Amino acid sequence: MLVDSNVIANAGATALFAIEEVDKIANKKPEHVYIMLGSDDLLMPVDNPKKDYLENYAKLIKKIKEKMPKAKIHVTSVTPVTKEAMEREPRYKNIPDYNEGLEKLAVTEKIDYIDLSSIFEEQQNLYSKDGIHFEENFYPLFLDHIKEHIDSSDNIDGVME
């Protein structure tokens, strides 16, 4: 069961800023930590945003492992955006490249990578007006999708978005 108080969702969250939330997550003593980040990292005004993103993500994972060595860590792919959002912000075209890097990082760090792309292939009406964020109907699909990655007897203890 997902409890709202176990969800940490901060507007503008990046992998770097998420590192600051690890103590808050650790206090909840989760068995599973789900991390959904990336679209804001794509837009960071740095020379190599993908490199920074993956380095900060690795630091985030390391800190979670240090603070919660028994927790199973799951990272989700960076979610796609609509064609219109991509036209407004061309850097969103890099999402597949970020996901490739994130998937490799998950292998290196021996954590679970969850590809969310099938949700968007099956459903087109998930986006809010900005074409980046989601309507409420996305979240039950998201939860159903990630439930496939845990034992049916486990609870979903924490989600970071």
TrEMBL record:
It comes from Paenibacillus macquariensis. This is Lysophospholipase L1. InterPro entries: SGNH_hydro, SGNH_hydro_sf. Residues 8-136 form the SGNH hydrolase-type esterase domain. It comes from the Bacteria.
